[in-house]
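Posting here for the record, re: EPU.
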Amino acid sequence: MEKLLVHGGSRLKGTVTISGSKNSSLPILAATLLTREQCVIRRVPDLSDTNYMVQILGTLGAEVERASGRVIVAAEKVAPEAPYDLVRKMRASVCVLGPMVGRLGEALVSLPGGCVIGDRPIDLHLRGLEALGAEVEVKGGDISVRAPDGLRGAEINMRGKFGSTVLGTGNVMMAAALADGQTVIEGAAAEPEVADLAQFLNAMGARVEGAGTRTIVIEGVDSLGGAEHEVIPDRIEAGTFLVAGALAGDDLLLENVCADHMGALIDVLRESGHPIEGRGPQALHVRAATSPRGNEFATEPYPGFATDMQAQMCALYATTPGISVVTETVFPQRFMHVPELNRMGANIRMEDATAIIKGVDSLSGAPVMASDLRASAALVLAGLAAEGTTEVNRLYHIDRGYENIDDKLRRVGAKVERAKEG
Ligand code: EPU
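Prediction output follows.
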């Protein structure tokens, strides 16, 4: 296993190019199963999660080629079973379910395992597929979905206890693209990744309207064809580098970003005093505030503050003067970074799903244990601003979602090195 050594105290200066979105790429790659024709997906980030998805497509029978960000898929045949060995490695593999049922009228997919950020049930995905007329059975760790007479369009409310579901909306949208008649999804997730998936589906010949809002209308078509698509910039990678700039930035420019997808984060950072400016349509410039201030926010489904940026903000506020209050409403248990930040000298107290952060003058480097992707990113950020060296163990978590994070940080002046653990 590898770890990242982060030597604190450098100032960040230069340009970072943001990669294509992981959370767009995964369902879009799964959607290529909906057609027997060739699809070309560009700007797919080279990450372990996208590699798993490519492997899953291959195991299901698709021919897949991958070179410098371009993935070419031709799924002339698709097997109806996705085995546990593959699915267990990545929760997002559940998004092959919708395309498999849409194309084949049946699918057997192992239930994805638990996850440290919360229970992560898939009841809403299954409720949506049932509303389209599929029979769903969960047995022996597998989900079996069957629609021997095909799927039928329906009105579906996908809102759950914690709001909308991103991959659930994608799954139902993909299945409904090939259903008979009209499907209306109410309470849909409005995340940019859902809109990106809809754009790809429409390029394949689907008829999806309203993606990016709470109501999506899909007119089923008989078949879909091949298409080319470029995935949107990764708003969470961009957000993580914005926070790096707020913590330690002298003059940091982020290229290939879509600022419109990051409104809530930019507002909160500006309120805390950090100057952020647009530079043309696809670049953002950030500097650390001279007098940063604490702040208060709660995570929410898009366009609210993204849960995937919550841990990184806790790292920022750990050394921001004043009291900051961060509430998690999407995944209430997603605070594994807090004990690790406290080991580095932070003063964070939990009250249910709210972190109360009293800014300290400085953190001190320590060996810390990353437990999930965004928590790991938060520890790297904390290390940039800490005194001494922070050793972030279990780096494989970060490699799931950040393409070449060590190279990108080094190029803008951070002192980080990858090393073997133990
Ligand atoms: N939920 C249910 N039932 C369901 C599905 C979800 O109760 O059937 C609940 C979840 O437990 C959670 C809330 O609904 O409380 C939202 O979960 P959602 O389904 O939207 O999450 P997801 O689609 O599985 C995606 C991202 C996550 C991101 C969430 C929320 C991908 C591959 N993953 O997951 O990204 O946190 O949306 O925005 O798109 C990450 O990139 O680090 C990451 C975890």
